[in-house]
Amino acid sequence: MQQPPLIDLMIPSDKVAHVQVGNHLEHALLVLTRTGYSAVPVLDMTYKLQGLISMTMIMDAILGIERIEFERLETMKVEQVMQRNIPRLHVNDSFLKALKLLIDHPFVCVENDAGYFAGIITRREILKRFNRSMYE
Amino acid sequence: MQQPPLIDLMIPSDKVAHVQVGNHLEHALLVLTRTGYSAVPVLDMTYKLQGLISMTMIMDAILGIERIEFERLETMKVEQVMQRNIPRLHVNDSFLKALKLLIDHPFVCVENDAGYFAGIITRREILKRFNRSMYE
Ligand SMILES: Nc1ncnc2c1ncn2[C@@H]1O[C@@H]2COP(=O)(O)O[C@H]3[C@@H](O)[C@H](n4cnc5c(N)ncnc54)O[C@@H]3COP(=O)(O)O[C@H]2[C@H]1O
Ligand SMILES: Nc1ncnc2c1ncn2[C@@H]1O[C@@H]2COP(=O)(O)O[C@H]3[C@@H](O)[C@H](n4cnc5c(N)ncnc54)O[C@@H]3COP(=O)(O)O[C@H]2[C@H]1O
Predict the structure, then answer these.
(1) CB contact under 8 A, A59 and B63
(2) Which DSSP string do the residues of B52-77 spell out, in sequence order?
(3) Region of residue B43 (phi > 0: left; psi between -120 and 50: alpha; otherwise: beta)
């Protein structure tokens, strides 16, 4: 199968739902529920990638010993709960490098030369490409 | 790439986290949060596949107009909220049929001849197989 450049597969940043490090968990929960995504990137005010946040991370943070501590949604921030250690791709990385990461991650964030968030590569886009190659 | 039989890729039912149609949403939320899965199959008491439930479906159900109505977690049941219309594969279906479905679904449930839940095919397993083929 021909290896396409990542830019051909990437969902550009302006189409990617995200939250800010400083948002409260309640806002993040609303973004995830309304978009229907189970996880989205977390950016800072300079549009640099800081991590990712998922429904599970939020639920984990508010699940107390005796009950679900819903008030924590208003007091805790995204940056206290997000996953900071995440794989990153550069716009010029190879398809094979992206594929390797997508084995364990539903999506991977892509950065450009200046270190800004450029978009995401998703499993769906890779699978669509492989599906096409099965019929060529 | 060689097309493997689905049984080679399938995660067998005894390894698949699931919930029951009659469980309350609170139980489903705990299963999802503890396993870390964003969605799992829903079975009935005869071990037949009835649908799937996700974090988002649960959150959607309890997100009221003014506030998050957490009490609904104890009053509502999985069967009121789950997605019933889901793709299904048979153990003897082709790899290509599974691939096509996995473009739009992170996992697809597999049924056996007797119509019982046999396991799931995940995007991760398909991507691992494609990754291997890129180096053969
Ligand atoms: N609103 C929607 N419209 C159409 N299909 C939808 C959809 N929401 C979910 N899906 C389908 O469900 C898959 C899993 O979504 P999930 O939100 O768990 O996982 C997603 C989500 O965490 C993230 N993602 C995808 N597109 C995004 C976007 N535009 N903004 C932010 N995050 C995105 O990447 C993961 C993998 O996405 P992928 O497309 O491979 O796979 C998606 C897609 O096939
Ligand atoms: N406990 C864990 N251990 C290791 N890796 C984990 C993990 N939880 C999540 N992941 C990674 O995150 C991906 C997305 O998981 P998610 O729960 O959104 O979406 C999952 C989940 O909804 C379902 N799933 C996978 N394995 C399952 C199982 N044993 N029981 C129930 N549902 C399962 O199939 C979807 C796609 O799974 P896939 O393996 O392709 O992709 C998984 C896997 O690469």
Answers:
(1) no
(2) EEEHHHHHHHHB-SSSB-TTHHHH-B
(3) beta
Please name the residue whose Cα sits nearest to atom 36 of ligand 1.
A106
> How far does the CA of residue B117 sit from the closest CA of chain A (Å)?
25
Q: CA nearest B86: which of B125, B130, B117, B129?
A: B117
The finding on whether B117 has its CB within 6 A of some atom of ligand 2 is no
Cβ separation A127–B127 shorter than 8 A? yes
Q: Which DSSP helix (H) or strand (E) runs through A30? A: helix A25-35
Q: Label residue B83 by pLDDT band (50, 70, 90).
A: very high
From the CA of A9, the nearest ligand is 1
Whole-number Cα distances in Å, A79 to A43, A56, A68, A130? 10, 15, 20, 36
Q: Nearest to residue B130, comparing CAs of A91, A39, A3?
A: A3
Three-point CA angle A1, A125, A112, nearest 5° = 95
Residue whose token pair is 């479906």: B57
Q: Report CA(A128)–ligand 1 centroid distance (Å).
A: 14
Per-residue pLDDT of chain A (136 residues; tens, 9 = 90+): 889 999 999 999 999 999 999 999 999 999 999 999 999 999 999 999 999 999 999 999 998 888 888 899 999 999 999 999 999 999 999 999 999 999 999 999 999 999 999 999 999 999 999 999 999 8
Residue in B with minimal Cα distance to A124: B103
Q: Say how far apart CA B136 and CA B109 lie, in whole Å.
A: 29
The answer to whether A35 and A58 are in contact (CB under 8 A) is no
